Amino acid sequence: MKIIIINGPNLNLLGVREKSVYGDQSFEEYFEGLKSKHPEVDFEYYQSNIEGELINKLHEVGFSYDGIILNAGAYTHTSVAISDAVAGIKTPVVEVHISNIHAREEYRHLSLITANCAGMITGFGLKGYEMGLFYLQDK
């Protein structure tokens, strides 16, 4: 099974930024642990702060991978283009958010991409990525 985790803007700062919201573990540390816990999965990881690069990656992998776990970061609430990219591909996408977007500022309550995803996991910290993996494995 080939799965890619795609993270959007500012998620390269996990472990450094707003530790009370996002924790103190870097994504790279978490990702290494996830890979060792699930050796049966061929994982790839991609992160960009640039909207167009995220769209290009979705297009690149969206017809050949078994699943995509997407945390679009702040683009979740603003990017019609990322929503359209998710709608245009065949690979199932699980939307993940580390924090509970519904417990944050009101403008974060709306996700423009959820309607084009298999589902959304929000508020469970980094464990949300593994929850997304479990869904994709059972699909």
TrEMBL record:
Assigned EC number: 4.2.1.10
Site (Transition state stabilizer): R17
Annotated positions binding substrate: N71, H77, D84, I98, S99, R108
Keyword vocabulary terms for this entry: Amino-acid biosynthesis, Aromatic amino acid biosynthesis, Lyase
Top EC group: lyase
Positions annotated as active site in the UniProt record: Y22, H97
Pathway membership: Metabolic intermediate biosynthesis; chorismate biosynthesis; chorismate from D-erythrose 4-phosphate and phosphoenolpyruvate: step 3/7
Keyword Acetylation found: no
Catalytic activity: 3-dehydroquinate = 3-dehydroshikimate + H2O
Top-level taxonomic group: Bacteria
A GO BP entry: quinate catabolic process
GO molecular function, one term: 3-dehydroquinate dehydratase activity
InterPro entries attached to this UniProt entry: DHquinase_II, DHquinase_II_CS, DHquinase_II_sf
Assembly: Homododecamer.
Similarity comment: family membership: Belongs to the type-II 3-dehydroquinase family.
Known role: Catalyzes a trans-dehydration via an enolate intermediate.
The name this protein goes by in its record: 3-dehydroquinate dehydratase
Source organism per UniProt: Roseivirga spongicola
Gene: aroQ
